Each structure stands twice: as C-alpha cells, then as structure tokens.
Amino acid sequence: MAQPLSRQKALREWKLYFFILPSLLFIGVFSYFPAGSAIYHSFFDWQGGDNKQLIGFENFSRALHDPVLWNSFGTVSVLIVFNLFKMIPAILMAVLIHRLKSDRAQYGYRVLLVVPMIVPGLVTLFIWKFFFDPNLGVLNNVLDFTGLKTMLVHLDKFFGWDVFFANAPIGWLSQPALILPSLFLWGFPWIGAVGVLIYLAGLQSIGQEVYEAAELDGVGPFQKFLYIELPLILTQVRLSLVLLIIGTLKDYGLQLVLLGDTGGPGGRGMVPGLWMYNRAFIAGEFGYACAIGMVLFLFILGLTYLNNKYVRVDK
Amino acid sequence: MLAAPGLAAATRSDPWADARNLNFTAAGAGIAPLHQAAPNDARLAVAYAAALLARQPRTEANIDEARALLERTAQFNPTAPSPADTDQRILAAYLVARIDHDHFETPRLDIARSGYEALRVAHPGHALADQAALQLGYMLAYQTAGLSPADTIAPVEALLTSVRSENPRRELHLMLARIQVRTLHNDAAALAHFQAARVIGCLATNRDNELDLTIGTLAARLGQGDLAARHYLAFAEANPQEVRTQTVRRLAAEALAATGSSTK
Amino acid sequence: MTRAPFRSLVPHLVLGLVFAWSCWHVASIRRVAVDTDKVTLRIGHWMLHAGMRESFDLAITDYQKLHPDVSIEQIPVPIRSYAMWLRTRLVGETAPDITGLAAVGEEIAGRYYLPLDAYASQPNPYNSGTPLEGVPWRDTFVDGLESVRNLLGPVSGELYGVNLQINTLRLYFNRNLLRAVTGSDAPPVTFAELRALGDQIAAYNARTGAKLVPIASCGPYSRYLFNTLVPSQTQRFAVESSPSLNLSVSPQDMATAFLRGEWSYATPAFRSGLELMREVTSLMPPGFSQLERDDALFAYLQQQAVMFYAGSWDYGVLVRDGPFQTGVTSLPLPDRDDPKYGRFVLGPISEAAGSPEAILGITRTSRHPEVALDFLRFLSSRRIATTFSRESHRISSVVGTPPPPDAPGLAPVLNGEVNGFGIDFTYLAGGNTNRAFQNNLHRALGPKGDLDDFIKAVETTMPENLRRDLAQAAFGQQREIRRLDSQLAFALTRSDPKPSEWSRLAEAQSIRQQERLPIVQEFFP
Fold first, then answer.
1. Fold held by A61-132+172-310
2. CB-based contact (8 Å) between C435 and chain A?
3. Burial tier of C54 (Cβ tally within 10 Å: 0-12, 13-18, 19+)
4. Do A44 and B57 make contact, defined as CB atoms within 8 angstroms?
5. Is C44 helix (H, G, I), strand (E, B) or coil?
6. The domain spanning residue C45 has which CATH number?
7. Is C271 within a domain?
8. Which of C373, C414, C504 lies closest to B7 in CB terms?
9. A-chain residue closest to C292, CA distance
10. How far apart are CA C53 and CA C58, in angstroms?
11. Contact state of C418 with B134 under an 8 Å Cβ cutoff
C-alpha cells in the first residue's frame, strides 16, 4: 500500500501540480460545469436559451407527483433484474475460456470477443431494430422457420396473452405486452466482451495450486466453479453489478432507438433517462428535465451506497 | 415597427433595439447606466423598470424592484413637467397596476383595481386610462368571485361608454360578445358587439377576416341572410386562397337563398 | 538493452500517423476559414430528401456566377437533430446566416431572426423579365406569406422567413402492381374503392402466394394518414359546432369542450373518426407503429406494398430509386354517399395553399444580412423556383411555377370544402393528452383492437391530462402577457413612439388575455 505523502514534501513539489491543471480544467469544464448547470437550472422554469424563471422546488414537487416518472422507475427496476440475469452468460463464458488448456486458444477466443467491440453501439442497436421488424426481421423469420411461432400461438391461447396470432407477424415493438420481453431479448446471447474480460482477469489471478488441491480432493467441474472460481471473482462481479445498476438506471439510448421518444406503445418502454430526454427535447421543459436528472442522480447515489454497504466480499 | 433599412443587426448599444429583439437582459444592461446618470428622468426609469420585469432569470426581487421604481416615478412631481414627462409618469402608474394585476405569482387584484381606477379618475380620456378601463373589464368578467356572467354585462357596458380609445373599445366589445354568445347564448346581443368591434377594425393580421366570419355565422343563425352574406363574401374576397373560402362562399349563397335574395 | 521487435512499434507508428494527419486536417480547415477575399454565406437546413441538396447546389452555383465575390456554403443537418442543433447554434450565436425555421415559435423567431416585412413589399429584382416583375416580393408567393406570418409571428404580425415550397400529402401507387392486382392502373378514387382494393389485394395474395400489403406505413406516417382521414369525419362538425364561430375548432376549444363533458370520443363524429382509423389499419402492415419512414419506403420500393401514403417531399426518392412507375393521387376519403361514414362529410376538402415548407430566415448574427437577403430573393425567384421544382420534384410556393413535370398531382387541390380537425390533441400545448392518445392507440387498432377499450383507457386519464395541458397553455399565455407589458413600455418610452406599434402590442396582449382568462376562471379558479 502506498505511503501517504508528507505535507512538507507535497508543498515542496508544488510546481508538479501545474501538470494536472489542464486535466482538472477539462474535467471542470466538460463534467462539473454541465452538472452544476443542471443543478442550477433544476430550480427554474427553463425553456432553453436564456428565457427562465426561478420557481424554487416546483420542478421537484412536480416530479414527486409525476406518474410517468415513477412508472419509468418501475420499468427500469425490471430491466435491472433482466440485466442481473444477463450477467450469468458472461461469467460462464469467462470460466469456459479460463479453463481452456491451450493459451493460444484462450488468446484466440479473447480476440474474437473483442473484435465486435469495434462496431459502434448505435449500429448494433439498429441491427437489433431490424431483427425485431415484424415482416422482414430475422427473429420472426427464425420463429416461423423453426415452428416456434406455432408453439407460441398455442401457449398464447392457453395462457390468454393475446400477443401471438397465427395469421399475423409478431409485433415485438408494437405491442405493449411485448416491449419488456423484447428488451430482455436484446443482446442475446448476452455475452458482453467487457464483462467477460473483467471476469477473466479475476479468474486468471487464481493460482494453479488451488486447482491442484481441488482435484486432489475430487472436486468436480461444477463444484470448482461454485466453490473456487465464483467466490474468487466476486470482487469483479460486484464491480460489474455497480456498473450495471448505474448504467441501466441512466441509459436510454436503447429505448430511444428501438421505441422512439415516447417509450413505444403504451409508453411501456419509458425509462427515467428517456423521460428526461422527452421533457427536454420534445416538450422543451429543460428545467424540469434537469430536476428529473437530479432525482435520478439521487437514486443512483442511494443504490450505490447500498451496494457498497451490503454487497460485501469476504476476503 | 420595421427594421431600419440596411438590415443592420441590433447593436448592444441600443437598448430599445435590444428590447424589440426581445433581449430584455441586454436592454436592461444598456439602460441601467443611463438611468443611474439621470434618476429623475421618467422615460429612463420606466424603460429600466420594464427591462427588470422581463429580464432573465425572472425573479420576485426584480419584480419588486421594478414596482418600487415605477411607483416612485409615478408619484414624483417635477417642478415644470413637460407633456412627455407627464405621459411617462402616467405610464409608470399604469405599469404599477399591471404588475399588481399580472406579474406577481399571487395577483394583487384589489390593489391593481385601485390603481386602474385612480388612473381613470386622475387622467380621464387618456389612452392609458382607457387601457386601465379594459383591464378593469377583464377583472370584472373573469377575476371577480361571485359575479355571474349576466351580472358582468352592465358594469362592463358602463366601462365601454366611458372609453374613447379604439383598442380598449374594440376589446371591450369583443369581451362582451364572447360572454353573450358562449355563456349567455344571446346571439343577437353578441352580434351587435361583434359588429361594433368590426367597425373599429383590428391591427392584428387576419383578425378582421375572422370577425367577418364570426359575424356571418351569427347573422346566418339569426336569419339575417343579407348581413351574413355580406360578411361571408368580405372574408372570401380578402382570403381567396384560404381553406375555408369555398365553404364560406357556399354559406353566403345559402344565406342569401334563405332570404330569397340572389348572390351579387 | 534489447531492441523492441518491429511489430511492437507498428501500433505506435499507426497512432503517430493518425495524430499527424488529424493535426494537418485541423490546420488546413483554419487556413480556409481565414480567407477574407470573399463574403462567405452559410445556409443551414434539414432538407436532406432527394433532390433538395442538389437543387440548393445548383442555385448556389448560379448565384456565385452572378456574384463572384460571394461564396455560399450549405450545411445540411439531419432532421432528427435539427431542432436541437438550431437552438444551440442560436443561443450560442454561431448560427449560419440563413437557416431553416423548424420547431421555432414566435419568441425564438423574434429574438434570433431579422424581420423581413420592410422588404416583402419591394419587388424581387430577380424576377425581372418574368410575369412577376414589379410584383411585391410578398405577393409572388401563393399565399402572400400569410402561412409563415401566422406560424412565426401570430402576435407581432412580423414576417421572419419565406417558404420556398409547399407540402401536400399524397397516396403514391405502384402502377405495375396495381395493374397486376386489378387489371388497371387507375387508382381508387373513393374510400369504398380503397376498401375494395384491399380485398382485391388479399385475394391476389391468396391466389399467387404473394404477401403484398395495400399501404406501406410506419409510426410517423400513419399519423399523417390518420390526420387526413379523421378530419373527413369532423368536417361537418367543425362548421356546425365551432365554438369560435369560424368554421374551425382550436385545440383549446376542443380541450375545454372535453373537460366540460360537452364532447367526448363517444360523440358520433369523433367515434366515427376512430372507426375509420381502425378500418384503414387493416390496409397497413402489421406492427407498422414500430416502423420508421425508411422501413416504409423500403417496403414500397421493394414492391412489397402497392401504395405508400407520404408527403410530396418523398416523391423525389420514389422517382429516383423506384424501379417502377409511381402514380400520384389524393387519399380517397369517404364521400357523402358512403353508407358508413358519409353522414359526417361535407365534401372534398380544399388544400388551399398546402402547408409551408423550406421556410428560411436570416439570423440576427449574420455578418452579411444584405447578402443573405439577396440570396433569399434569388432562391425565391421564378427561375430558381422552377429549377427547384424540376430537380426536387416538389411544389414551389412561388406563384406560377409549374409543378414537377412528372407529378402534377402533387399540387394542392384548391377547390373544396373546409377540412375538419384531428381528435388526438396534437396541437394542444403540454402534449400530455396527445401522449395518452398515442400510448393507448394500440388498444383500438390491430387484430384484437377494441374501440371501447381505447376510449375507456384514454378518458380515464383525460381530465387530468387536459388540465395539465391547459395549465401549460395558460402559463405560456401569461408569460406572453407579462412580456408584452415590457414591450409596450419600451414602445412608449422610445424617443419617437409610434402609436401603431403600441396599439398592435396592446391588441396582442388583449388577444392573449382573452385566451387565458376564461380558461383560468373556469378550470383553475
């Protein structure tokens, strides 16, 4: 662990601080100033430009009674649960790669995982939008071809879902009841490169002697995962969890591209970030959008605090 | 007012040009030093107060300051006032009442009412006193608790008889017309007021045309086919390319047919 | 020390080369920007549809030949981000000299754009030698620029831009497919014929195994379709029940009537409009609401749909990219004889001057406003308007300009009755009611659509949504009323006050007070 710098030494080397000034300046201008401006404007009725009126806490009061905002938190909670589930394939993939005996094979799979990262995220979103197209999309064509659609129609009749019809293509993004399932399906098979690499880095810190001891004790592959690998990468899992919760709470690009700025039919895909965007750029209520941003920030702060406090990793 | 020939963009040194461009913050910044240099100049005081009212961000403190400045200006008695100076002080008094009426988050209607009435007593016949009468009309019609629409007609008509300026007269007629037709369902009384407003004429684009249409519709309802046709055709001639024009021509023909006359 | 193998130097080399190239690129831009020999004019717009940029390029080339000391740069911006781009440029005072005016209200127009009234009454010098020579610039436009004035200067009466074109909405049809299905390429003329065509297409599909859709559509374009159909049902209603007695129903009037319970979606004309919407969706592809314009266009160009309801702005791309001949016709609406919908209909509607498109204005921060004005006059001259019409296949707003030679059907239909009004509260301030309408539309449409279910869902939250929207409208009106006090004061404190100016401002304030006060009295006492 690094030793703290003595005050005298820090003061003696004061000229070195000038080297970090440009970075601090950039962070101040491009990160802290916009955030500060958002906090300032959240107390105004602000239509953009310099036309604004101080209204105190009215925006926050309105946010407290805004059913669309609270419903969107409900939606995003469901998405967080989905995303928690979607962590599992990445962990399993990391374990599988880690267990490969050949270093070259491991390297090869790592490269294959990283290569898709060069595709911009927006392009991926548009490709998935095409997948969901009711008439030309790959998803409906695969379901038709494999006969899964017929199965879905029968299940629909049994459970009374009213979303799958024999003589109509499935409208994944045009039926409110299918919006959340579509958002769940998005990204299949849910093996994100960044997650896999983070877990792989954690797994590679497990010493070989641990595995040898486990084999001597007759521990099987699944038990190795459960009792050795998983506990020892919990730090990385926790990091992913924090990033996942923050990301899911604040992101809205996926919903904006797939569903538009109203969150799709029935507004079922509305999330807090998208509502903030809608209020700012569609309704022109920039001040209220800033207040929504503040509410969202408080949520994220609260959840991060809970995560730090209760999701402990025993060393 | 039209931009000066040459299309020069507003310069920040001209506060009145900034105000015309709706940049009241810049206008206020330009007038502030002028006002400070001549605090007893009513014109500058009123302009500065007007900038305070509209500058961004809009705050209660600015409104209070503007009101206080206008009140001082209105009450100041210079030793040898010029007509222009007097006009500015009347404007200041009018604006004080407007602030009480519409600029505070909780309107001070009673104080505004007193301000308007005082203005009418002190300066009868002045254009701003007539504007004050119009504001009193709005208060009677829409902002007096417990007063039924039927009960507002007489006092508003009384205001109308005391007003000479065209704008307030026209708007009082239109207010009465609206109450008569929408709330009291008295088409005949409404028609009279719409016609009176039309005679005065409007400056806003197309408003005269809309009045022609309204008069035509009411007249047709009341069986006054000739009147209806006349106003319908006036609309059609003024708006040959409007989406409603052909319908209006048809309605004019029907109105005339109902009276047995033929289309001219 | 071991020398690093060459291949580990490769990434550093690539990085270095890229960095060097980007430095050179930035430096070379700066060199061009400081060329002071010419007047550089920039024009920013969103009109990326086929033919528009090319038309602008032709006009710019012509203008630059006439004025070698002027260089004009076109800045096209995608429409999805245009409103945001424009607002940030205007606020940051970095807007181009001329910009398209989209999603701009009177406050923005008055603040950031130069009024053009003084010049609208002068003749356009670029019309000399044409029948428009000597005609005031304003009168060289089909509607005298009234649509632009009403859009951007309803209170002040000022003119802040000119519209080069007008839009209409049309039903495009694939002549080949239509002939294959019906034996003729004559399009349907009445709604009954459109309905029948849907049945014919279904029969054709069953016979041949094809999967043709009658009308290609998508979320945004379906709204155009509905907002053309539904007013046919509120046409008679608008004439007979207009609260303002002017043959039309304003969004505020509609909102207050709904709140009072005088009107509802059970009102026969409105319900009929909803039924008409529901019936026409059977002619559209399943899941159309999740599709975008490009998806619908693709389906039509790939000959998966027989027809496509779109704007006149889309005709250019159909002509350019369609491997078949596209016909143009108006959307067949129910006529008075229609057994189901006819009783609400007055007659064919008038499109009058169409809706204004390509509205361009001069920003106050322009360093060369006289040159910008001159270029605007050039763009709206008869000769250049004809070029635009020919190249972009759009309808010019300049009087006497012939419509695109291959599509006379795009021109607005002048003769007809007044149109009705939409019932989705699109134009009501606040947007809450409209959002509730759109969010629940799936209940009415689609295979299991139920109108009663839709009406119940929308009307449950309607009072609250309408109140919120009316409160927003009233708040906006109050802001204008307050601002007009300051404008009045400034008008009267000028060194040379003009009675006409302050009278017009006083009238504008009265108009807003008459709009606001009854609403507040009735719904927010």
1. MetI-like fold (1.10.3720)
2. yes
3. middle
4. yes
5. strand
6. 3.40.190.10
7. yes
8. C373
9. A260
10. 9
11. no
Verify whether the Cβ–Cβ distance B58 to A52 is below 8 Å: yes
SS3 A1: coil
C144 vs A58, B241, C73, C138, C386, CA distance in Å?
44, 9, 28, 5, 18
Number of domains in chain C: 3
pLDDT, mean of each 10-residue run, chain C (525 residues): 70 90 82 66 91 93 94 91 87 91 83 90 94 93 87 82 93 96 94 95 94 93 94 94 93 95 95 94 89 91 95 90 92 93 93 84 93 96 93 90 84 88 90 90 84 93 93 91 95 88 92 95 92
Q: How many CB atoms lie within 10 A of CB C76?
A: 16
Q: Cα separation of C223 and C220, whole Å?
A: 5
Residue of B nearest to A41 (CA): B57
The answer to the question of residue C378 being in a domain is: yes
Predicted complex ipTM: 0.92
Torsion of CA A135, A138, A142, A148, to 10 degrees: -60
The answer to whether residue C350 sits within a structural domain is: no
Pick from C344, C366, C383: which residue ends a domain? Answer: C344
Give domain status of residue C440, yes or no. no
Tokens of B253: 């023909």
Give the neighbours of chain C: at least 3 Cβ pairs within 8 Å: A, B
User: How far is Cα C321 from Cα C314, in angstroms, rounded to an integer?
Assistant: 11
What is the distance in angstroms between the CA of the first residue and the CA of the last residue of chain B? 39
Q: What is the pLDDT of residues A151-161, one digit of tens each?
A: 999 999 999 88
Element (H, E) at C495: none
Contact residues, chain A, for C90 at CB < 8 Å = 49
The alpha carbon dihedral of B46, B49, B55, B60 has a sign of negative
Element (H, E) at C329: strand C326-329
Cα A176 from Cα C235, distance rounded (Å): 33
Using omega within 30 degrees of 0 as the cis cutoff, is the peptide bond preceding A189 cis?
yes
pLDDT in tens, B127-183: 999 999 999 999 999 999 888 889 999 999 999 999 999 999 999 999 999 999 999
Residue C444 and residue A265 in contact, taking contact as beta carbons nearer than 8 Å? no
Pairing, β C39-45 against β A52-54: unpaired
Reduce the DSSP state of residue B159 to 3 states and report it: helix
Which among A50, A53, A54 has the least Cβ separation from residue B25? A50
Give the C-alpha distances (Å, rounded to integers) separating C191 from B142, C187, C305, C390.
47, 11, 18, 31
Same-domain pairing of C320 and C365 = no
Chain C residues whose beta carbon lies within 8 Å of the beta carbon of residue B232: none
Question: Is residue C177 domain-shared with residue C323, that is, in the same domain?
Answer: yes
Does C58 lie in the same domain as C131?
yes
Ordered by start, the domain boundaries in chain A are 61-132+172-310
Do C272 and C180 belong together in one domain?
yes
Q: Identify the residue among B21, B24, B58, B63 best suited for mutation to test binding to A, counting A beta carbons within 10 A and taking the highest.
A: B58
Which residue, chain included where needed, has tokens 């569609």? A282
* Nearest CA among A183, A190, A195 for reference residue A251: A183
The C-alpha of B64 sits at a distance from chain A's nearest C-alpha, in angstroms, of 14
Compute the nearest-CA separation of C208 from chain A (Å): 17
Q: What are the backbone dihedrals phi and psi of residue C172, each rounded to the nearest 5 degrees, phi first?
A: -90, 145
Token digits for C497?
């006050």
Choose the closest CB to B95 out of C489, C504, C506: C489
Among the three residues C300, C322, C344, which one is the final residue of a domain in this structure? C344
- Residues forming beta bridges with residue C356, ordered by sequence position: C166
Given a contact as 3+ CB pairs under 8 Å, which chains touch B? A, C
Range of the domain at C151: 39-162+357-404
C310 and C273 in a common domain: yes
Task: Please tell me which of the candidates B44, B87, B204 has its beta carbon nearest to residue C511.
Answer: B204
